[in-house]
Amino acid sequence: MPPREETASQEESSSLKIPVSxxxxxxxxxxxxxxxxxxxxGSVSHPDDPLNWPVSRKWIVTAALSISGFNRxxxxxxxxxxxxxxSRELNLTTxxxxxxxxxxxxxxxxxxxxxxxLSEVYGRAPVLHITNIWFFAxxxxxxxxxxxxGLIASRLLAGFGAGAIFALASxxxxxxxxxxxxxxxxxxxxxxxxxxxxxxxxxxGFVEQYTTWRWMFWSTSIMQAFTVTVCLIWFRETHxxxxxxxxxxxxxxxxxxxxxKPFSQLPPIPGQLLRKSFSTPPKQLLLHRSVxxxxxxxxxxxxxxxxxxxxxxxxFTSNYNESVSVSGLHYIALCLGEIVGSxxxxxLMDYLARxxxxxxxxxxxxxxFHLPIIVPGAVMAAAGFLMYGWAAQRRVPWIVVDxxxxxxxxxxxxxxxxxxxxxxxTYPDSRASTSAAIxxxxxxxxxxxxxxxxxxxxxxxxxxxxTMLGSIYVGGHVSGAAFLWKRGAALRAASDPxxxxxx
Length: 503
Prior knowledge:
The protein is mainly α. It has one domain (50-251, 270-494): Up-down Bundle (Growth Hormone, Chain: A). It is 73% helix and 0% strand. Keywords: Membrane, Transmembrane, Transmembrane helix.
């Protein structure tokens, strides 16, 4: 089937044009206004295709997804400053309290394996709305538990619902935006969720000092209730095969009414299709070397981020004699680094991608054009590691440590964006499933590396420990990016992309 042609929207004019890349999924058939037109002109592009939506509608859907991601990341880190208090009140051992903190992240490793494929069968919207409510219910329950087992179980179930965002993000952004706009759209989408990584420990520190730890969960549940409402109002289905199936079952409905067709009216899905969808992420992890390498690099990078998040506060309470609430303010440096990295990195990635396309004289946009941003990002992350580690080792003024963490998080974000953009365009017919496969390693890294952090820093010191981590990070990411640049296209051609069709 030939690539879809670009259709200009007449609803509004904008300087942001939406080109349809030849690398866009070719399994998708444009939507027609009536069943007769579908049968007659199934391959004619139409504005109902999410790639051809008005820019304003695209940003509204992107904003709803971004807001949904914020609270889920806040909850993953908000407990850290209050672990000693929670342990005393619920009579938890150190291992049990660490398990309560990590259960949330651990659940996000496996829930995308179910929720990602489901979004490619039933659509993105049902999965987002149901998991939003699921997450709200079990996060609220965390504030009422009276036992350690209850807290661990509630955190595990809350994390299962929260994990949907990691699979849906790549799928929805890929549905809406062309590969040439990947950097710009990722930078805007990530702006709000990235605040969560730094805001969580800050909120947790002040809540722990001035009120009960239970308000960590009650306050974020209030925020989640707001998120549920926003998504129900703003978010619209973006999965084109789902929209096409929904449209084909319409008799005489108008296009506008079809967008809000109840989930209960969607056609039943054969069991064979469900089995195929659930098998996609494991197959990609086991059989696709490109996905394996992306998963390893993303897992280590995400683990490094959570290693810093879990140990940063204790550095200032032990080495600089600060209170828990004041030590939490240093997360602002990490948060700023991620925000600046997302904004600079997104634009730089698009610029380098255009240069790469021009230099290679390619007539098609290749996923490998997203990879060059990884090199400067990895170098900056390594430099930040060195500055942060040796400043903390020698107990120089805290501002030097914060600057080092700022540079570190900036570099982590730039490399992460490049990998995420590459992942989104590697297998466009199964973006959510591919993201789910990679998320397994990301969440396992975020769960495992923080467990080793305290002992590593106590035995090696901050200087040598961070030197080791920085060396591994820059070496692995630069060599990995070089390998994918050289061999990525061949690996994709040799692999079965395991597409999930909804025809």
